Amino acid sequence: MTQALLKQAGLAATVALICLAHIVQAQQISKRAGGISLNPYSPKSVASLEQLPPRIGKTLVTHLVARLGDEFYSRLTFRNGDVVNFDDLYRVYPEARHYQWKVFA
User: 21-30 long-range CB contacts below 8 Å, 24 or more apart?
Assistant: First the structure.
């Protein structure tokens, strides 16, 4: 795979992890997505969409609106998430390069 494809795959996996890590509330219903362990790597935690890198935040919002629709998306509340820097993850945990990351959508 070329470096560009690896970066795209990393972005997709990062967005997926952020989707997994956040809690969504709508119509008095609270749901928590499952999580994964990246031990010994500790990703950066974020408490709002504004704390995400702009490109990833835009990709996440576009994905959620496309999947859920504008009306339902407007009722969601972002609670928290994790931002994974894959270069740092691979440096701390080289075996992670061989994972086949599953994008949950």
Answer: 21/80, 21/81, 21/82, 22/78, 22/79, 22/80, 22/81, 23/79, 23/80, 24/76, 24/77, 24/78, 24/79, 25/76, 25/77, 25/79, 26/72, 26/75, 26/76, 26/77, 27/75
Q: Report, in angstroms and rounded to the nearest whole number, the Rg of the chain calculated over CA atoms.
A: 14
Question: Per-block average pLDDT, block size 10, for the chain (105 residues)?
Answer: 51 52 47 70 88 89 93 88 86 87 52
> pTM for this structure?
0.53
